[in-house]
C-alpha cells in the first residue's frame, strides 16, 4: 500500500520526496479510513525522521488519533511513560541522558506488566542516517516485598 504511494509520488519527477511528516499524515488518513469502514488495522504506529534538517516525531492509533511531539508513546506507555517524559525530558539532553530516561520509562512499564519482556533496542536518528543498538536486557529487581506477596493485606472473599 505505502510502497505504491511512494512509487506514485516518485513518478512525478519533481525533485520532491516524501518526508516523515508526509508519511505520518498519509498513515493517519489510512488508519482513520479503515476505522470508518469498521475494519481497523489493529496497530499503533510511531514515525520519526529528519527532512531538510527538521526533526519529526509523531504517532497514530488504530482509529486515526494522532499527534506529534518531542516524545511519543503508544499503548500502556501513553499512560505511564509520558508523564515521566513530560517531567524529565529537556531539549538539550545528551544521548546518554536520553537512553537513561528511556530505560527508566521502560523499567516502570515492565514492573507494571510482569509478562512483558525486558529486552529493548535503541534507535538514534541523525542527519547522517540512523543507528540501531543491539538488543539488550534491562537490569531489574523483583525481590521487593510487594512483589513477593501482592495480595497481602488485600480485603476480599477470595
UniProtKB/TrEMBL annotation:
<dbReference type="GO" id="GO:0005839">
    <property type="term" value="C:proteasome core complex"/>
</dbReference>
<keyword id="KW-0647">Proteasome</keyword>
<dbReference type="InterPro" id="IPR029055">
    <property type="entry name" value="Ntn_hydrolases_N"/>
</dbReference>
<dbReference type="InterPro" id="IPR050115">
    <property type="entry name" value="Proteasome_alpha"/>
</dbReference>
<dbReference type="InterPro" id="IPR001353">
    <property type="entry name" value="Proteasome_sua/b"/>
</dbReference>
<dbReference type="Pfam" id="PF00227">
    <property type="entry name" value="Proteasome"/>
</dbReference>
<dbReference type="GO" id="GO:0051603">
    <property type="term" value="P:proteolysis involved in protein catabolic process"/>
</dbReference>
<protein>
    <recommendedName>
        <fullName>20S proteasome subunit beta 7</fullName>
    </recommendedName>
</protein>
